[in-house]
Design goal:
Helices cover about 45% and strands about 20% of the residues. It is α/β, with parallel strands linked by helices and about 130 residues long. It starts with a strand and ends with a helix.
Length: about 130
């Protein structure tokens, strides 16, 4: 399973990489939205995880999501918000923006892996047909 994680914080990126790699995913890290847009044109992806705050003077995760949704080859690829925004209402706000799922930091990896396992199962079923 190929997962793109868009995250400007190197420590957060490293932790996510280790957790997902341990669970049999190939993780590609992009430090900002511009890098992410290049990666999606070069790699076949199964899931995209996006931090919302991608640094000063950078496009944020919501802007990136809008650009990703305009790329036809990504129409069936789930995009999850992974963010420190964790106030009441934030989850619904990001789902309403168009994210397929939302995980607040610190990420509950058991929950994330459960959701990723369901995606893997769906991919495996579609490949078997």
């Amino acid at each position: 399973m190929n997962v793109l994680y868009v995250e400007d914080n190197k420590i957060n990126a490293m932790v996510m990489d280790k957790m997902l790699t341990k669970n049999h995913s190939n993780v590609i890290i992009a430090e900002n939205g511009s890098q992410a847009l290049k990666v999606v044109k070069e790699k076949n992806l199964d899931l995209i995880l996006v931090d919302i705050n991608l640094g000063l003077n950078q496009m944020d995760g919501c802007e990136l999501l809008k650009k990703l949704r305009k790329i036809d080859i990504l129409s069936n690829i789930p995009v999850f918000a992974v963010t420190a925004y964790a106030m009441p209402g934030d989850k619904q706000r990001f789902i309403n923006t168009g994210f397929d799922n939302y995980f607040s930091k610190p990420v509950n990896f058991d929950q994330l892996i459960t959701v990723i396992s369901k995606i893997k199962g769906a991919i495996n079923k579609s490949q078997a047909i």
